[in-house]
Amino acid sequence: MSQRPQHNANNVTDTHLVIVGTGFAGLGMAIRLKEMGIDDFIIIERASDVGGTWRDNRYPGAACDVPSHLYSFSFEPNTEWSRVYPTQPELEAYLQNVTDKWNLRPHIRFSHTLTAAHYQQDSGHWLVKTSGGDFRARFVVCGNGGLAEPKLPDIPGVENFGGHHFHSATWDHNYSLDGKRVAVIGTGASAIQFVPQIADKPAKLSVFQRTPNWILPRHDRAYRRFEKWLFKRLPITRKLLRAKIYCQNEMRVLGMVLHPALMKLFRITATWNIRRQVADPSLRKSLTPTFPIGCKRILISNDWYPALQKPNVEVETSGIQEITSTSIISKDGSEREVDCIIFGTGFYATENPIATMIHGRDGRVLADVWADGEEAYLGSSVHGFPNFFFIVGPNVTLGHSSMVYMIETQIAAISRVLEAANEVSSTTVEVREEVQDTYNRELQTRLGGSVWANGCDSWYKHRSGKITQLWPGFTFSFRRRNRDFKQSDYIFATPSTEATQ
Ligand code: NAP
């Protein structure tokens, strides 16, 4: 397994394993393979450099709202984080450094966009088609990210707008907002970060809010030189800080899943946060959510409310009726001529377009299998799709802590399945249907009593209403569940032979 990928007669590159994406998930998986002594793998990446979310989302003010010392690989600590919350450039640089340190670039095929993946039943391989060439692999690990495909709103006329426009995830840094009439559609995690950064530039900035969010203060600050020195010289101090952040975040699960009444404490803080920052009662009312706190992602910011009260900024809350070639018409009949629209309208989270490209056993298309809402076993394996694994697949996202922890958990779990397949000399491994079903029934029962279930719409939910994104519990219980690996949960086989387990 340590040999290098080979071209065969059909100009298809043979390799043991293909990884999709070079974010935390893809890079972490590649590092684990190297640790396992597997060198025969390819990483396909549609962009020209690594970084995933943290390469794409370069809008002004982009930062993570999980503290840096937790939002990083446990095995690659960084004592030099400049702030409590890492900024996009820092995270991108961190991932580039990790890539170079582990010498992953020779494995990466940049500008290779996945176009299709077909399971070949006769041989148990996957044919992975990309814009840059095709690969034949025994295994595929998809680390393409749950929030990778920017979504434009389904507002009538949106396609007719003739002015400048871009999405927060594809920010146009060459376009000057100075003196322009700018509209921002959306008031989610991305918009509350970029609006304060750009608010002073346009002559007029109209923020179109469909649903206000609950916002808590952001306790951010730069780390002092002395602290960084301490993290470096006394690693226990960094480890203790990481453990403290981890435990504080896990406490939120008590309110989000186990006792939603506890969320009142957050509601009191968020309500105080609006009161102290927004003086005008009518604006305050329109910025105060009516849904239970935590139902949608809780946001953190100190500069969102002040930005909305600048003299050149207005908040429009009546809803958008239509977009014309030059303007936005609101449901109250008012019309605003604008030069530029910035869409802070989120991503295809629940219906990830990549599922339309994945063809499993008997030609079944993953998007069809997931028509009523995505599901998998432990967020990784889907019955009918042997040798195919997701990182950050269904029901792995968190409303309370670091996705890097979940990613590391899944990488370890996938490695265990790969090792088990190797040990029993099987060429295919597939989760049993009844195991996947039982797991998902249990998840949905637990999610039914959570704060996310009732009172709001969110990207955590499929259009059927099923919560397909979130893990309903502590992150350590997800890890424990993954560690309790049972070989009997999977069917190990070699094509044209009986299953071995
Ligand atoms: P988002 O949270 O999904 O927010 C999208 C916004 O667009 C919402 O305000 C939504 O309103 C609005 N919208 C969507 N369709 C609309 C329509 N047709 N008409 C009017 N408004 C519409 O997207 P995001 O802000 O890009 O964030 C996505 C996720 O990325 C976050 O939840 C978070 O997990 C992650 N993220 C994290 C960070 C961070 O760590 N700080 C930063 C950015 C993003 P409704 O609420 O009414 O649907």
From TrEMBL:
Write out the transmembrane intervals. none
Q: Report which residue ranges the record marks as coiled coil.
A: none
**PANTHER family per the UniProt record, alphabetical:** FAD_NAD(P)-BINDING DOMAIN-CONTAINING PROTEIN-RELATED, L-ORNITHINE N(5)-MONOOXYGENASE-RELATED
Q: What is this protein called?
A: Cation diffusion facilitator CzcD-associated flavoprotein CzcO
- Please name the source species: Zhongshania antarctica
